[in-house]
Amino acid sequence: MTGPLRVVIVDDEPLVRTGLRTILEAEPDLVVVGEAGDGADVGALVAQARPDVVLMDVRMPRVDGIAATRTLLAREPAPRVLVVTTFENDDHVLDALRAGAHGFLLKRARPEEVVQAVRLVARGDSLLFPDAVRRLATTRPPSGDELRSARLTEREGEVLRLMATGMSNAEIAAQLFLGVETVRTHVAGVLAKLGVRDRTQAVVRAYESGYVRVE
Question: Which domains does the chain have, with CATH numbers?
Answer without folding.
Answer: 5-127 (3.40.50.2300), 142-209 (1.10.10.10)
